[in-house]
Amino acid sequence: MNIQIRYLSKSGNTKKVADAIAKEVGVVAETIEKAVPGDTDILFLGGAMYWAGVDNKLKKFILGLDCSVKKVAIFSTTAVVKSAYPEIKKLLRAKNIFVYDNEFHCKGEFLKLHKGRPNADDLELAKQFARDITSINNFR
């Protein structure tokens, strides 16, 4: 099975989560600058919520995804607003791409808010999320 990880991280928070997931599933996390191969069984897709919503670069990436990406697991970080899941899910479902109902979301450090987040506990939970997603698909 082919598992890919793509993310957009402006501050490094989402990258930390992407790297934790990558370590757990044994692949390399890549930014959204790298295309996703068409034979992808699971794409772990990460982003963050900003004041105006999901970043336009991430939206463009999603709109360019090939429908041969079978399933997407969403992870996100935010400092103030809620999870990026609803907005990312809506974009993916509009392309008829399956999106897991469960997501991973944690606080991310921004200025003086949530200092040190994501922390070691958050990253362990991200790894558990990856295990849960891959075990659903009998990859292990």
UniProtKB/TrEMBL annotation:
Residues 5-82 form the Flavodoxin domain. It comes from the Bacteria. Coiled coil: none annotated. InterPro entries: Flavodoxin_dom, Flavoprotein-like_sf. One of its GO terms (molecular function) is FMN binding. This is Flavodoxin. It comes from Clostridium estertheticum subsp. estertheticum.
